[in-house]
């Protein structure tokens, strides 16, 4: 019996099927399920009982960040590895803060991917050198959106919140804003709720009207 029960989550059929073939060839790994979006992934964690999830980020219906959040809330013992194409620091920080044990790029060699899966299954964590370097640079030199450097606008809004408010005023949905800013939809929803609270409004229409009156957008 194979020790590592793995769930593959990616919206591209070719990637899922290719990884399934490669990973099932290893004597320690069994792919117990595959999903093309985060919503199905959460359902399969309950049904297939994997102990490791290999999770993409950008997927329809529910992205990998939101799926990771739900999996870690309900099955904290399941190890989650984010496997994505992009070097997105905000996603790295968010995924790790939610409890993900690893963050790998899809350009990784299959041998290194298998080694990484085994390391994380044994209780380790994994972050590729290039992402670790970017993360350290981010910590040493915070962007204008970090709490230390972020200017405060009217109503106590941060620059990031002003940016999201401007996109709301253009009619973009939360999902569209998430894609534009490379954030998870859940993160955008949290920002929007904070904006409403700070501006003391109940919905998008009130927020946009108030922002226009105060020349914020």
From TrEMBL:
<dbReference type="Pfam" id="PF00072">
    <property type="entry name" value="Response_reg"/>
</dbReference>
<keyword id="KW-0238">DNA-binding</keyword>
<keyword id="KW-0804">Transcription</keyword>
<protein>
    <submittedName>
        <fullName>DNA-binding NarL/FixJ family response regulator</fullName>
    </submittedName>
</protein>
<feature type="modified residue" description="4-aspartylphosphate">
    <location>
        <position position="56"/>
    </location>
</feature>
<keyword id="KW-0805">Transcription regulation</keyword>
<dbReference type="InterPro" id="IPR001789">
    <property type="entry name" value="Sig_transdc_resp-reg_receiver"/>
</dbReference>
<dbReference type="InterPro" id="IPR058245">
    <property type="entry name" value="NreC/VraR/RcsB-like_REC"/>
</dbReference>
<feature type="domain" description="Response regulatory">
    <location>
        <begin position="5"/>
        <end position="121"/>
    </location>
</feature>
<dbReference type="InterPro" id="IPR039420">
    <property type="entry name" value="WalR-like"/>
</dbReference>
<dbReference type="InterPro" id="IPR011006">
    <property type="entry name" value="CheY-like_superfamily"/>
</dbReference>
<dbReference type="Pfam" id="PF00196">
    <property type="entry name" value="GerE"/>
</dbReference>
<dbReference type="InterPro" id="IPR000792">
    <property type="entry name" value="Tscrpt_reg_LuxR_C"/>
</dbReference>
<keyword id="KW-0597">Phosphoprotein</keyword>
<dbReference type="InterPro" id="IPR016032">
    <property type="entry name" value="Sig_transdc_resp-reg_C-effctor"/>
</dbReference>
<dbReference type="GO" id="GO:0003677">
    <property type="term" value="F:DNA binding"/>
</dbReference>
<feature type="domain" description="HTH luxR-type">
    <location>
        <begin position="146"/>
        <end position="215"/>
    </location>
</feature>
């Amino acid at each position: 019996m194979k020790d590592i029960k793995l769930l593959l989550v990616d919206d591209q059929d070719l990637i899922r099927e290719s990884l399934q073939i490669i990973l099932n060839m290893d004597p320690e790994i069994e792919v117990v399920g595959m999903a093309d979006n985060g919503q199905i992934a959460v359902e399969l964690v309950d049904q297939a009982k994997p102990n490791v999830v290999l999770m993409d980020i950008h997927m329809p219906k529910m992205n990998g960040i939101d799926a990771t959040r739900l999996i870690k809330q309900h099955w904290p013992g399941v190890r989650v590895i984010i496997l994505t194409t992009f070097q997105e620091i905000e996603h790295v920080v968010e995924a790790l803060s939610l409890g993900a044990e690893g963050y790998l790029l899809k350009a990784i060699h299959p041998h290194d991917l298998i080694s990484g899966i085994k390391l994380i299954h044994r209780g380790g964590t994994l972050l590729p050198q290039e992402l670790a370097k970017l993360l350290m640079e981010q910590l040493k030199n915070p962007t204008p959106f970090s709490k230390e450097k972020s200017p405060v606008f009217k109503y106590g809004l941060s620059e990031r919140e002003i940016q999201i408010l401007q996109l709301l005023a253009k009619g973009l949905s939360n999902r569209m804003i998430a894609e534009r800013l490379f954030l998870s939809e859940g993160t955008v929803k949290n920002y929007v709720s904070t904006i409403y609270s700070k501006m003391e409004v109940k919905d998008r229409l009130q927020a946009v009207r108030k922002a226009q009156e105060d020349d914020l957008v």
